[in-house]
Amino acid sequence: MSAAVRKNKYNVRDLFKLQRTEVKSTNHCCVPLCSASGLYNSHLSFHRFPKKTSLRARWLHKIRRAGFSVTPHTKVCSRHFQDNEIHTTAKGRRVLAAGSVPSLFEWNSYTTKSWAGVWERRSRPPSPGPDSAGPVEDIGHPVMVPMVVDHDYGASRTVCVDREQYEDVLSEIETLRVQLQTFNLHHSFGLKRFASSPEDIRFYTRFFSYEHLMAFWNLIEAATAKIVRVTRSKKTDATSTTTESPLTRPTKLLPIDELFLFLTYLSTGFTQRELSHRFNIHRTTVSRIIITWATFLYSLLGLVCIWMSPAAVNASLPHDFEGIYSDTQVILDCTEIRCQTPSSLLLQSEVFSTYKSHCTFKAMVGMSPHGALTFVSALFEGSTSDREVSRQSGITSLLTPDMAIMVDKGFLVDDLVPGNVHRPAFLSKRAQISEEDVLKTQSIARLRVHVERIIRRVKENKLFDTTIPLSIAGSINQLFTFACLLSNYQNGPLVKKWRYEV
Q: Measuring CA to CA, which residue among 283, 294, 280 is closest to residue 230?
């Protein structure tokens, strides 16, 4: 390397060596952009940070060194303090006045002068006096109205606007308010949104119209005050000594919207996650609402006696049953709903149905001759036979010798019931059924088909068209029973000319 190159290359520290050393001091200022040092300037004084925590925090805030670690050797030079904040003692030492804070820095040009704002720097015409005469009012100009504003942007606290513009703005605000309410109504998934659409009411609730749904709500509304809700945790006597009123208990939805959610769950078969998105609530809240209302409505409608006396049945007996079938009290049939296959082989063998070739739950449904549902059993395993379901369902205890039942071929219950059994004839090792048996089978099938129609009404609830998950197996009995009982409130008669009384 040449001598010329070595001469141009120098260290920054060499600059200080060229300065004149005045005192032997190692003090230097910790403020950013300040290079003051006591080694080369004897006119500056250096001051330690105060011991008081609040005052020290103000110093750090002023010098703009957040998170800076202060040591006993950290000091600030006197050029950052005002002249009246530094005093000289009798011994010639310069000390700070109590409570002094550095305020002069490179970024404020070492001054504390405050600049006037835009409003102060802008010139304004003088305000008219109270006695000065105003301009002559022009009839052709629009009338001005005063309007008080929130912020004082002018010399006066009031401004004037055009009356026509003012009224147009008010009209626009009212229009936007109505649009906002309509928008919220259309985007909130609840009963009010579909009140004016009978098709949507039938789709989501299976009720014929909004009026029919409200009639059912009026029947059960008083009982909802005593509903027992499923909550996240159970209160014990040790932790709770008061009972919370169902009327004052906070809920995510109104009771009628909770009923609408429950009916939507039955009718559409939506998953709980989908319902949580539609109703804008948590999925666990949907689960608690479903279990709560399933238990509540199962208990409430279960208190209503749907079994009819022979006199009531005869009073509503259709003409099609007159004759040899006039003693028919109930028409019985079994139905099955699919369920999720259990992992246990033992449980699989119990719920597997050879008729459906799938794991199912099985129930018996009975209807009176005029079409009202009058009996529904609990759910049994799919492997249970029709005879065993008839024996365990409790239907035999309701029958008397003067009551006849109408069943399908699989119901071999002649020894279980005290009365007659109207059942289609069997071939029974004969080469051909007799003409009399054919006519009997046709007449029974023509009347017994109506129980299939009432079962179809129950299964119009799409929940039972899907495979029932085992996660709701604990409440599926309540759900199915309520769907059967609700069919008497949702629908009209199976045949229009039949009288429908329960």
A: 294
In order, the DSSP letters of 137-176 are: PPTTSPPEEEEE-SS--SSSSEEEEEHHHHHHHHHHHHHH
Question: 390-427 burial, b if ≥16 CB within 10 A, otherwise e?
Answer: beebebeeebeeebbbbbbeebebeeebeebbbbbbee
What CATH architecture applies to the domain 310-490?
Answer: 2-Layer Sandwich (3.30)
Q: What is the Rg, in whole angstroms, of the alpha carbon atoms belonging to the chain? A: 45
For tokens 């950052």, what's the residue? 80
pLDDT at position 392 = 93
For residue 450, which of 362, 336, 377, 367 has the smallest C-alpha distance? 367
Q: Which two three-digit tokens encode residue 333?
A: 């049939």
Q: What angle do CA 101, 103, 108 make, to 5 degrees?
A: 165
Structure tokens at 228: 């027992």
CA distance 421 to 413: 8
* Dist. CA 132–CA 129, nearest whole Å: 5
* Single-letter amino acid code for the residue at 296: F
The amino acid sitting at 123 is: S
Region 450-463 average pLDDT: 92
DSSP 8-state assignment for residue 467? P
The segment(s) of the chain belonging to CATH 3.30.420.10 are 310-490
Q: What is the DSSP letter of 85?
A: G
- Residue 387 tokens read as 């005879």
DSSP 108: G
Alpha-carbon span 78 to 346, nearest angstrom: 91
- The pTM score is 0.60
Strand partners, 482: none
- For 297-350, the pLDDT digits (tens) are 999 999 999 999 999 999 988 888 888 899 999 999 999 999 999 999 999 999
Tens digits of per-residue pLDDT, 75-130? 999 888 888 888 888 888 888 888 899 988 888 888 877 766 666 666 666 666 55
